[in-house]
Amino acid sequence: MKYIIRFRKRGVICYTSHLDIMKVFKRAFKRAGISLKHSEGFNPHPKMGFAQPLSLGYEALEEYIEFETAENFPVPDDIEEGILRPLQDIMPEGLELTGICEAPWLKKTLAAETVMAEYRVEIPADTSGINAEELGEAYMAQGEIITLKKQKKKPEPVPVDIRPKIQSLRAQSAEGGIILRMRLDQGSQSNLSPELVITTFLEFSGIGTDRSEIDVTREKIGFTRDIDKYFQY
Environment class of residue 212 by beta-carbon count within 10 Å: exposed (0-12), middle (13-18) or buried (19+)? Predict the structure, then answer.
């Protein structure tokens, strides 16, 4: 059976890489006695994967991991008792499992169904004399937002227009700085790194905050369908 777990990633564990988080889940499944289905071939690997990789240093409120087990837990109580609780008991601090569902309806991967993600960006800054809302509107009013982006098979970054991939962006004043809330294209068809938006926004606004002082949280991942309706926990 195929299942999806929804989880949060907060605190110091946000500095654990995507690949290492994958290892955490693999070891957790093994320690919890949950047998995963494996691929065939000379190098079999567990059938599991994340909806969208999360950049190092980002916190997340709503992440998803899909996996297939070698046995079924079809009854809701069995899913919770047989998978969710045993895993949560051995998860490191900062990884909180918030839901689980069966996913026989998932014919592709979650990564293939990902279309967008929403982010909250906290920028410490002196906002005296700055109207954050107007600044955000002016940034989005640009016909083009050109920045340099690294591309495969090209030694040097090339200029690209990221404006079409920013679905929405709002800026608001907050104590000690500015908060950006943005919805960006994410997924295999169209994908935009929040880092490019942060860089171009700082350049546009003239705010000199160092990137190391900025906190980023991915609050939501959007798919081609509403998958939250399948979760019972």
Answer: exposed
Say how many C-beta atoms besides its own lie within 10 A of residue 119's C-beta.
21
Cα-to-chain-centroid distance, residue 61: 8
Q: Tell me the C-alpha distance between 109 and 86, whole Å.
A: 25
The per-residue pLDDT string of the chain (233 residues; one tens digit each, 9 = 90 and over) reads: 899 999 999 999 999 999 999 999 999 999 999 999 988 878 888 899 999 999 999 999 999 999 999 888 877 788 888 999 999 999 999 999 999 999 999 988 999 999 999 999 999 998 888 899 999 999 999 999 999 988 877 788 899 999 999 999 999 999 889 999 999 999 989 999 999 999 999 999 999 999 999 999 999 999 999 998 888 66
pTM (2 decimals)? 0.93
Cα–Cα distance for residue pair 37/185, rounded to 1 Å = 31
CA 10 – CA 217 distance, rounded (Å): 9
